[in-house]
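Q: Structure tokens for this one, please.
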Amino acid sequence: MSEYKPIATLEDDGEFTAYVALPDGGPKAAIIVIQEIFGVNEGIRRKCDNWAAAGYLALAPDLFWRERPGIELDADVPEQFEQAIGHMGKFDQDQGIRDIEATIKAARAELGGAGKIGLVGYCLGGRLAFMSACRTDGDAFVGYYGVGIDNLLGEQHAIGKPVLLHIPTADGFVPADVQKKMHDGLKDNGHVTLYDYEGLDHGFAAETGKRRVEDAAQLADRRTAEFFAAHL
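A: Here is the predicted structure, written as tokens:
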């Protein structure tokens, strides 16, 4: 079962929606799915549905709502890809983290106040998942092909919970020198695990569309499922 639910901002000065997928029976934990630059589209909703089928409460907050609620774009359509880049340029990432924190608060309330919360993000969401590991009280964090994480390494001292990062080595948005900075900068952080995917490009684990590479997507998703099972 799935539905859209309102979530109040931390400041309680507004609200945004989240796509919520409910498991059969009581959830064992909650997982927040953090969108790509394409909004809470069909692929992100499928991610939530898959987590619900695995027994988790899954939520995908609409993080672009301050600009325009309900943005849904297709990465395979060039015009829509360009629109997505434009939306990302207008997005306040610090405020986005506060909306993610509000979503964590709402998810904990749904779990009765005591459950654990995992976060998993893709592209922009992969970056936000790493930021969330540094700035929120979530319990486990996964980032797929996060962009610009090398610029966030100065915050890693605040990480106190497990983090998993999936890095495709041929990522057109995260060049080899940036990947090296990530590996070198995080190698001594005992909370962080990095997996490389040789020869793969950005978006290889997208749920739909031309970017998906089936075997690698299944491998990365299996590692993520095992990670959440261990830490949630």
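A few notes: Strands lie at 2-8, 15-21, 30-34, 57-61, 117-122, 140-144, 163-168, 192-197. The chain has one domain: 2-231.
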